[in-house]
Amino acid sequence: MTDIAAPSAPVSRPGRLSKFFKSVALLKESPIGMFGAFLVFFWVFIAIFVDLFPLRDPLAQVSADLLKPALSPAPDGGTYWLGTDDKGRDILSRLFYGSRLVLFWSSFATLVAYTVGMLMGVAAGYRGGWWDEILSFIGNVFLSFPLMVLLIVILSQLGPDSPMGVILADYGFSKTWIRGLTIVLAIMFGTAPQVMRIVRGLVLDLKSRDYIAAAEVRGERPFYIMVVELLPNARGPLIVDACLRLGYVTIAIAALGFLGLGLPPPDPDWGKMISEVRGFGAMAGNAMIWPAIAISSLVLGLNLLADGLREISLRD
Amino acid sequence: MLVLAARRLASMILIMFVISIMLFVFFEGDKLNLAMRVLGQYSTMEGRLQWLEDNGYNQSLVVRYFSWLFGFLTGDWKQSAQFSAPVFDFLLPRLKNTAILGGCVFLITVCIALILGVFSGIAEASLRDRTITVLSVLTTSVPEFASATFLVAIFVFWLDWLPGSSSFSNGFTWRELVLPVAALVIFNFGYYTRMTRASMAEVMASQYVRTAVLKGLPYRQVVMRHALRNALIAPFTVMILQLNYLLSGVVVTEVFFAYDGYGKAIYDAAMYGDVYLILAGAMIAVAVAVTTQFISDIGYTYLNPRIRFA
């Protein structure tokens, strides 16, 4: 009687989660990337848990406390840690509640732009021929239109009073959502072509690999090859680019807020917080600086994180 | 080369067509609001409709488009509704102002980026390199309206050295140009510095530079004669493309400092629904974008003898 070997323990295949933690652990080797991750997670943490902090109402106006400097005492016995704005609202709580809006809308816009851009890029790169010609031309049309001008034109025309805004309002969308969705749409038009270009280049490179030929021989449908075979294999450079692009989108949305084309008035949008107080001259110095610091720190975090990720991906 | 130029020109004209048609259709729905803005909030509906009729906005879209197209090609760029002036005459001084701003920014950015990039690239991983790299990431992360905010807070509110707006209401002065230029340079130079650095570092690690060093050439000569030209190819193309960015990427800065340039004109026109001004601005932007792209491609081939057009 031969011994039947006990079934060996299943070979542990690294799951997605453990892979994720592994790459986080790799990030430890890049101090710059770590610092970037820290800045980003700081704002993400605040955006998620802002309700748990003992903050004042970000919309409450105290008419006696206009444009107070940082650390001035508040009538409720507390302190305005970062001062107040031109309507007597607490800047710290506006910044913290604003982080929720900034992070949500810029991630949402980047996600939509990336999805559209990736699908366009992989279709143009893999299908080639007319697909490539037409998609590349559409991309070129939007690319030769300067980004900021494109955003301004779309947003100035598709406001809450436009036909599109009225229809959305009928469906019960609030003004913030109508504006937000228009911003997402505009960012998509401006950013998707750039993503498409990158993905198309990557796909042209990957197309000639053996596993694509194998999939074609197996008789997989083109859509399957594009989404399951090509895109996951192009993810390395795309993750780094997505991180940088999230930074650009954050800047663009804040700039739109500054130009008065961002989220509508009572919302604490960081870009708008700067433009709202600008008219008050030297008295508004304090109120202007904090949102500028907030936006810079978030973008800095994203840029440094992208750097760290790139360093790691080059090492493998 | 000529074939390439012709193809670029053809694609540029096609893109201009598509964009002008899109803009025309896009702004069509805003006509009544435009009349309202021109005549004021308390004007009557009849008055607004009359204004549209008088100014030719009521003709069918196709007729209006071709009338605009014909005018555009023959030098009549129509009337700006907002500034009640011919678009061409209005836009020309605005473009000149942006050219002044953009030119200063471009020169300063290129100088800083090349010097810092080369210095950090020739000594990769040194303290100097690290400092320059961190500095350039730091400054590119500060968007221009944020750096403008810091600059205004420091130099206008705190030190009171410079004016906070640059509308040149008392004629042109260099003082008013300092802050907008500084804000744009701070936002831009980091990217080009890193580009130059990466390119320089790559060249310094190459075989022929090592050979040049090993055969005993003075270090300065190795850098100046052997490395620099090859290292500047990639940054050059990117920097030429920056000219395109400077035309339209300056919108936020121009609005911030009330600088009467092209970007602010486009912003005002979009907010007002001034369709002819937007159209002209967009056409100029497309032309500049395609031209800079072309120059950058040509320059790339000129600097890099390995690449030749088929």
Describe this structure in words.
Chain A is an all-alpha fold. In chain A, about 70% of the residues lie in helices and about 0% in strands. Chain A has a two-stranded antiparallel sheet with strand order 1-2. In chain A, helix 3 (about 90-125) packs parallel to helix 7 and helix 4 crosses helix 7. Chain A is globular. The N and C termini of chain A lie far apart (about 50 Å). Mean pLDDT of chain A is about 85; it is low at about 5-10. Chain B has about 300 residues and is an all-alpha fold. Helix content of chain B is about 75%, strand content about 0%. A two-stranded antiparallel ribbon of chain B has the order 1-2. Chain B is flat, with a radius of gyration of 24 Å. The termini of chain B are close together. The model of chain B has no long low-confidence stretch (mean pLDDT about 85).
Structural class based on helices, strands and sheet pairing of chain B: mainly alpha
One letter per element, helices H and strands E, the order of chain B comes to HHHHEEHHHHHHHHHH
- Radius of gyration of chain B equals 24 Å
Q: How many helices of chain B? A: 14
Number of helices of chain A: 12
Order of SSEs of chain A, N→C? HHEEHHHHHHHHHH
State the shape of chain B. flat
Strand % of chain B is: under 5%
User: How much is the average pLDDT of chain A?
Assistant: 84
Could you estimate the helical fraction of the residues of chain B in percent? over 70%
Distance between the termini of chain B: 9 Å
Largest sheet geometry of chain A? 2 strands, antiparallel
